[in-house]
Amino acid sequence: MGIIKLKNIRTYSYHGCLIEEGKIGSDYIVNLEVKTDLRKSSISDNLKDTVDYVLLNQIVVDEMAIRADLLEHVAHRIVTRIFDEIPEISRIIVGVSKLNPPIGGDVEAVTIEMEEYRS
């Protein structure tokens, strides 16, 4: 088994419960970790034998582009789509961070993290 990590995927998205957040948008960072079997690709050196990082990144970017009130909802969509499209993945950890959230304080980021296993 093995782990693939995509760190600090940056997007400009329009998530949040406030109307202004849907109009103005904000900077986000997504961190993704997936568990899969890397033994075959480590020997074959062939992309078809592993999980394509480009596809993982595209799923994150696509789902971050769809507005949601809650970061939890966006993270759930990312997890669901990865499990639907990449059967080789057995576990996903996804963290979605909103930079400089409008919460009335000096907060660099707010992050939600979800961990899901294929059922």
Automatic annotation (TrEMBL):
It comes from Flavobacterium segetis. NCBIfam families: folB (TIGR00525), folB_dom (TIGR00526). Belongs to the DHNA family. GO terms for molecular function: dihydroneopterin aldolase activity. Its EC number is 4.1.2.25. The keyword Lyase applies. Catalyzes the conversion of 7,8-dihydroneopterin to 6-hydroxymethyl-7,8-dihydropterin. It catalyses: 7,8-dihydroneopterin = 6-hydroxymethyl-7,8-dihydropterin + glycolaldehyde. The keyword Transmembrane does not apply. This is 7,8-dihydroneopterin aldolase. Coiled coil: none annotated.
